[in-house]
Amino acid sequence: MPLYTQVEPPEGYSAPGFFATTLDQVVGLARKNSIWPLPFATSCCGIEFMATMGANYDLGRFGSERLSFSPRQADLLMVMGTIAKKMGPIVHQVYEQMAEPRWVIAVGACASSGGIFDTYSVLQGIDKVVPVDVYVPGCPPRPEQIIDGFMKIQELVGNESLRRRYSPEYRALLGKYGIK
Amino acid sequence: MTDKIYLPADYVPVLIQSLVAFGFVAVTMFATHFISSKRKRIRTLRKDENFECGIDIQGNARFPFSVKYFLVAILFVLFDVEIIFFYPWAINFLEMGWFEFFEMLMFIALFLFGFYYILAKGALEWNKDE
Fold first, then answer.
1. Domain residues of chain A, as ranges?
2. Measuring CA to CA, which residue among A116, A114, A51, A118 is closest to residue A88?
3. Tell me: the pLDDT tens digits for B10-58?
4. How far apart are CA A153 and CA A146, in angstroms?
5. Is residue A51 over pLDDT 60?
6. Domain ranges of chain B
7. Residue partners of A62: CB distance under 8 A and separation at least 6
8. Pick the CATH number of A31-160+168-174 from 1.10.10.10, 2.60.40.770, 3.40.50.12280, 3.40.50.620
9. Nearest CB partner across the interface for A96, out of B39, B41, B44
10. Closest by Cβ to B39, choosing from A90, A92, A166
11. Would you call B42 an interface residue with chain A, using a CB distance cutoff of 8 Å?
12. What tens digit of pLDDT does each residue of B93-111 get?
């Protein structure tokens, strides 16, 4: 039986007494297993997230039992629920105040695309205001789906180059969302 | 007690201690600029804002407010401190004689005079229109 309290070592060169790998992978390994999510729950997907944090599903197994309600300490913005157009600037500012590196997961149909609320008052997907890394479909998605999306985020975090956030491409991406 | 004459040389450790303290601050202030990364991350005005709730700040916390609040607070502190002086006096009341009793009466009289002054000046008339 695998030991759940340990993580797989990254690819590298090992011999008796030492292990050599790249800094990117070590930092990625540390980051992906200690993500602090900022829950931005506005409706029913937030209720599913409560179940995800609860004992049965236990997001703490992935190193994320510590939710951060301050964007400055958070690594992952979890937008769960319908984002009305009035709420759009608030999501945007919370994202902007998060420290780099930061990731965003859109949980549920509403956050991803507006869902059933195809109306004048609802933002048709949060990717209109912030760059999104992973979309979780469902209305609302089950905790298993949220965890699946979270593991996709972990994959992204683990494989990200340390230089990505300084690159002109990343700057251009943020510039598209008005963050300069 | 022996009469020891302190020479300026006896204070050299204090001087060294202060030099080390100031030196540490100065060195770290300069060193951080050399240690930290040359690559700069995006820093915006909104990112540096005090509040984290996502809602734009309305107004300023530092605005003038009525002087009445200040008066009430200061007068409260004044008479509150007076009460504090009563406690040790009350605890030792049985061992004390008439002298201490009249001393406390004098103390209270002083404060009562202050209270009369406050009333006479109209500091507690809050609803009066100027």
1. 31-160+168-174
2. A114
3. 889 999 999 999 999 999 999 988 887 777 777 888 888 888 888 888 8
4. 11
5. yes
6. 67-121
7. A33, A35, A147, A150, A151, A154
8. 3.40.50.12280
9. B44
10. A166
11. yes
12. 888 889 999 999 999 999 8
